[in-house]
């Protein structure tokens, strides 16, 4: 009798649990295996830029019809902006009700950690201008994903306009996309080891220390994230016309990766595979919407931003007016669009938001010390939002295979081309 091979997703799950156990047992000593996790993250970063470039260009030109491209593009932007704004409004409401900063003083919270200097918040004009590259080579070398996406969109549109003359170029990008998926599969084979090391080091470094004065704040952020999950479920049921049960049966495979990498961009290879092979979304659509979502759809991040503003304002006894709180939601949405989909990117962006609202930055250093715990949840919700919005768009465009979506025996997708 042939022995059944353990799937890669099962190995990742085992690695996740093993990492927690190792972190609890060895504590800070487990940091000796940190290079293993760092190598895994470097491998992921290595493939992100070319993967986005080839997948978006190939995805755009595969759509073929300019009118269809405009329709899908406008839907994508609307979904991402609206869901981000809604997540921010929900989180702001919950944070006001819970009051994570009530009863706390700045002296109890401010630590001796890293100091973050205030950074001017970007205006809408600055955000839009920052999306357009003035030197595409600089965009690639600095991994400015939004600028790379904009350039990729131009490349894909140009190929469509060229018609028959662009066939060879189109074939080049489609082949390049296939090559990147193959490399992705190779990299993801190392994920069980990377996940084990990343989780072990996180648990070993922080342990139970996080359950101090910041415990209520952490709990508030996670409650906000849970409320966003409810919003996702409603979207799937009402707009996506899809089984909620099947979705939450299959999505944890992706969550293991997002929680360990804490990077929307770094999780992109797995997000693309899960959306295609687990949920039956047309590959061309996923290649277009998901890389965009990894850089501008930060539903989880906006939960953190909204909770942070309320947390800091309550610690310092600063009353925010209704107008200021509405401005917080709008600014949080804007900031989340410009936030890099990389580990810890939200910390930098939160300083912009706090500065704009006229709030002190002293607490940010302490939050940064335990941000990895928060980032595991916010990144997971960011990426989940990308998948849910893509499923909803796919339903409207008739670009989803219900047989695959409803197949409870669908194959593991981590590392599958």
UniProtKB/TrEMBL annotation:
Transmembrane parts of this sequence: 12-33, 39-65, 77-98, 136-161, 214-234, 294-316, 328-348, 354-374
Membrane topology classification: Multi-pass membrane protein
Location(s) in or outside the cell: Cell membrane
A Pfam family per the record: SDF
Keyword Membrane appears in the UniProt entry: yes
Location, primary (coarse class): membrane
Keyword annotations of the record: Cell membrane, Membrane, Symport, Transmembrane, Transmembrane helix, Transport
PANTHER family (UniProt xref): PROTON/GLUTAMATE-ASPARTATE SYMPORTER (PTHR42865), PROTON_GLUTAMATE-ASPARTATE SYMPORTER (PTHR42865:SF7)
Protein name in the entry: Dicarboxylate/amino acid:cation symporter
Organism: Tissierella carlieri
């Amino acid at each position: 009798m042939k022995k059944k091979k353990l799937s890669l997703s099962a190995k990742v799950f085992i690695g996740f649990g093993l990492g927690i156990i190792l972190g609890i047992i060895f504590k800070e000593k487990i940091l000796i295996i940190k290079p293993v996790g760092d190598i895994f993250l470097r491998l992921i970063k290595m493939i992100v830029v070319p993967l986005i470039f080839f997948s978006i260009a190939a995805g755009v030109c595969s759509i073929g019809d300019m009118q269809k491209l405009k329709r899908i593009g406008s839907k994508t932007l609307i979904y991402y902006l609206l869901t981000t704004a809604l997540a921010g409004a929900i989180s702001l409401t919950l944070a006001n009700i819970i009051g994570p900063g009530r009863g706390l003083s700045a002296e109890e919270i401010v630590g001796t950690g890293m100091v973050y200097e205030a950074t001017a918040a970007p205006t809408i004009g600055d955000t839009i201008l920052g999306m357009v590259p003035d030197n595409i080579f600089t965009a690639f070398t600095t991994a400015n994903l939004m600028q790379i996406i904009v350039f990729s969109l131009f490349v894909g549109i140009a190929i469509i306009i060229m018609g028959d003359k662009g066939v060879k170029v189109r074939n080049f990008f489609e082949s390049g996309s296939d090559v990147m998926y193959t490399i992705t599969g190779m990299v993801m084979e190392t994920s069980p080891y990377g996940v084990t090391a990343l989780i072990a080091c996180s648990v070993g470094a922080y342990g139970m220390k996080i359950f101090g004065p910041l415990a209520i704040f952490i709990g508030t952020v996670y409650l906000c994230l849970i409320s966003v999950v409810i919003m996702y479920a409603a979207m799937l049921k009402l707009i996506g016309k899809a089984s909620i049960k099947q979705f939450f049966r299959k999505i944890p495979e992706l969550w293991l990766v997002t929680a360990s990498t804490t990077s929307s961009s770094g999780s992109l290879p797995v997000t693309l595979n899960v959306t295609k092979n687990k949920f039956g979304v047309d590959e061309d659509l996923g290649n277009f919407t998901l890389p965009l979502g990894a850089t501008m759809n930060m539903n989880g991040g906006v939960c953190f931003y909204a909770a942070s503003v309320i947390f800091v304002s309550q610690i310092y006894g600063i009353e925010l007016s209704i107008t200021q709180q509405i401005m917080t939601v709008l600014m949080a949405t804007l900031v989340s669009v410009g936030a890099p989909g990389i580990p810890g990117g939200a910390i930098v962006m939160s300083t912009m938001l706090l500065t704009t609202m006229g709030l002190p930055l002293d607490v940010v250093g302490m939050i940064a010390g335990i941000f990895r715990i928060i980032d595991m949840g916010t990144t997971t919700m960011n990426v989940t939002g990308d998948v849910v919005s893509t499923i909803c768009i796919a339903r409207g465009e008739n670009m989803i295979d219900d047989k695959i979506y409803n197949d409870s025996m669908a194959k593991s997708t981590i590392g599958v081309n």
